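Hi R.,

Here's the chain you asked about this morning:
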Amino acid sequence: MHPFDAQSPPKLALMLGYAGLIPFITGALGIWITPEGWRVVVLAALLDYAAVILAFMGAIHWGLAMRAENAGQAAQLQLGLSVLPPLLGWLAISGGMPISLGLPMCLLAFAGLYAADLRAVKLGLAPQWYPSLRRPLTIIVCLSLLVAWASVLLH
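And here is the predicted structure, written out as tokens:
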């Protein structure tokens, strides 16, 4: 069986993926338990990490598109779309954008990335197991960003 046809993600991918959630979860929860004066630091760190991971995820799609044997229009579109997550992450942390806008921007970018993940599998660019890895990670990331955004809206 070709690794692309496997239905279950490799154990290392699972472990690294779940380890990557630690800053999201601790950041989102930390905002609620951190003393008032430190909340802005925790929020900034969470948003910075979200932007870094958006760049990482965009690079994955760049790589998937580049390795496509058939560099047809679908792969070219995937390549072009791969630059959107890092751009959105950069916008969220640069130029003084309010955190109340940066958090939902990142949230939408992660949701859009999951749609791109599914598209990449459908096009044969990503392995069949990729959605079973990305689905729970995306849900936890989005919930973490929602929890953080709620703290901004309620404080």
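One quick note: The helical segments are 11-19, 22-33, 39-66, 73-81, 84-93, 99-122, 130-154.

Cheers,
M.
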